[in-house]
Amino acid sequence: MPFLALPNEIVLQISKFQSPPDINSLLKTSRRFAALLKPELIDAACCADYSSYGKLAIYKAASCNDYDMVKHLLAKGLQRHERAILHDAASTDPNSTTTMEILLACGIDPDGRNDRGRTALSHAAAAKAGKAVEFLLKYPQIKVTVDSYDSDRRTALGIAAKTGNERIVGRLLANGAEVDWVDKRGLTPLLLASSEGHDRIVRLLLYNNANINWADHGGRTSLHIAAAFGHEGVVKVLLGPR
């Protein structure tokens, strides 16, 4: 008997032993299978053995603005992936604001941390994803913790100061980020920006009253660090008028 002619009950039994890609292939063979196997595909994607497919399913649903499907997938047990999905959207998705809006509307915690202690805001800052940072800071239904810190005690401002995105640094400062936050190594955003040669960010931090005399655990100030790395532009800013 041809497979397409098998009774629904047998097809469903067979599908329970297939991976999500295999079920998806079957689903595409006919309209009958498309209707029959869609719930089976969702169940398989939500199975712990296929967690990568579950993350992909919920991410795709969110990026397609499918609120009901995201809620359904979360209810099926995919809450365990919600932080990773939000972080991915904040740092890698060019349409991140649409995706994040759906995820947040479905109740995903905007301050959820990964195993390094980073939140979506920190991931967006690290990826220089300015639109995602602005969205998280301004989304009306949530209040992100602007000074949430990772396992290195580094905030989004410290990350942005080091990676060199002046616009993100400005947005974070405008939303109350602590300009002199000290990380685990004794580094402030000013010291981090100085170490990377970001003279415009150094100027912006000083304009926002960053402590120019702060020294890290090794006794180095921002001037010491900039000079040691040969960042002449930063040295000029630090020694110049303010």
TrEMBL record:
Record key words, sorted: ANK repeat, Repeat
SMART domains in alphabetical order: ANK
Keyword NAD: no
Entries under SUPFAM superfamilies matching the protein: Ankyrin repeat
Entries under Pfam families matching the protein: Ank_2
Superkingdom classification of source: Eukaryota
Residue spans crossing the bilayer: none
Name of the protein in question: Ankyrin repeat-containing domain protein
Organism: Tuber borchii
Taxonomic lineage: Eukaryota, Fungi, Dikarya, Ascomycota, Pezizomycotina
